[in-house]
């Protein structure tokens, strides 16, 4: 029995179908770094022509494209006997349950959600390639009609494709949950940083009181005890200015300190 490394060690040619040159180049660069041969088609029709001229190992297609979207491209690939077993991965926002049903209807083998993490993308491609090899002769065809969101969906994908898409959807949901957890953690760290004393502070050179953002003066010890990581600049609070320089300060006037 072949190992996972052996199953993916053969030459792999991936066709990217993406109408955004920037995203296509980014994805192509990443895949080529992994040692895979990569070609790019700017739309669905160009992809079909490339596949007819030279069949790739795997197709990765964006869904939102002009003229022919990713669903239709996948549907045409799967409808042709010569390419019916060609694995297709759709790149999607996967924001609605109906997206999964559309993927099943067109016979997609897997999903990758935008924006994607490169390590997750790599694992999805490996998963698709390995399982395609393992299941090449194990077809379990079925037809199923599903009513969802006021529409009837006729699913012709086999059981294995359905299982793959369900796993893919679940894994994508876990990834999004981890990203949300990380974002929340980073936000909390940012909030903690905001609460931490940083930057330049106005401090009275006489009594060492510190002026806060509400223009109130506080004893140094108490202020520092509530905050940290600060640098000080020196000035005079009004009381010390009147005591040290009465000739410049009236009884009820506040001198300019140091620009604060």
List the helices and strands and how they pair.
Layout: H1 4-7, E1 13-17, H2 21-33, E2 37-41, H3 44-53, E3 58-62, H4 70-79, E4 88-92, H5 97-106, E5 110-113, H6 118-134, E6 144-148, E7 151-155, H7 159-195, E8 200-204, E9 210-211, E10 217-218, H8 220-226, E11 231-235, H9 238-244
Parallel strand pairs: 1-2, 1-3, 3-4, 4-5, 8-11
Antiparallel strand pairs: 6-7, 9-10
Helix pairs in contact: 3-4, 4-5
Describe this structure in words.
The protein has 260 residues and is of the alpha/beta class. It has two domains: 4-189, 3-Layer(aba) Sandwich (Rossmann fold), CATH 3.40.50.2300; 196-244, no CATH class. 44% of the residues lie in helices and 18% in strands. It has helices spanning 4-7, 21-33, 44-53, 70-79, 97-106, 118-134, 159-195, 220-226, 238-244; strands at residues 13-17, 37-41, 58-62, 88-92, 110-113, 144-148, 151-155, 200-204, 210-211, 217-218, 231-235. The protein has a five-stranded parallel beta sheet with strand order 2-1-3-4-5, with helices on both faces. A two-stranded antiparallel sheet has the order 6-7. Strands 8-11 form a two-stranded parallel sheet. It is rod-shaped. The model has no long low-confidence stretch (mean pLDDT 77).
Number of domains: 2
Secondary structure tally, helices: 9
Radius of gyration: 31 Å
Task: Give the strand content.
Answer: 15-25%
Main β-sheet description: 5 strands, parallel
CATH architecture term of the largest domain = 3-Layer(aba) Sandwich
């Amino acid at each position: 029995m072949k190992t996972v490394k052996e199953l993916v060690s053969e030459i792999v040619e991936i066709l990217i179908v993406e109408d955004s040159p920037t995203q296509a180049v980014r994805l192509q660069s990443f895949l080529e770094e992994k040692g895979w041969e990569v070609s790019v088609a700017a739309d669905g029709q160009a992809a079909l022509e490339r596949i007819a001229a030279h069949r790739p190992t795997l197709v990765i297609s964006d869904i939102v494209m002009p003229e022919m979207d990713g669903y239709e491209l996948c549907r045409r690939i799967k409808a042709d006997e010569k390419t019916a077993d060609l694995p297709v991965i759709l790149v999607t926002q996967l924001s609605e349950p109906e997206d999964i049903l559309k993927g099943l209807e067109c016979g997609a083998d897997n999903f990758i959600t935008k924006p994607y993490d490169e390590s997750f993308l790599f694992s999805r491609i490996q998963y698709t390639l390995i399982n395609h090899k393992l299941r090449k002769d194990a077809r379990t065809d079925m037809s199923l009609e599903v009513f969802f969101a006021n529409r009837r969906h006729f699913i012709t994908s086999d059981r294995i494709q359905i299982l793959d898409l369900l796993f893919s959807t679940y894994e994508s949901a876990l990834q999004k949950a981890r990203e949300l957890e990380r974002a929340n953690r980073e936000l909390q760290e940012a909030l903690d940083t905001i609460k931490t004393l940083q930057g330049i502070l106005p401090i009275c050179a006489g009594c060492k009181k510190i002026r806060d953002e509400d223009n109130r003066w506080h004893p140094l010890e108490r202020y520092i005890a509530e905050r940290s990581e600060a640098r000080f600049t020196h000035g005079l609070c009004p009381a010390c200015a009147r005591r040290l320089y009465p000739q410049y300060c009236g009884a009820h006037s506040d001198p300019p300190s140091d620009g604060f």
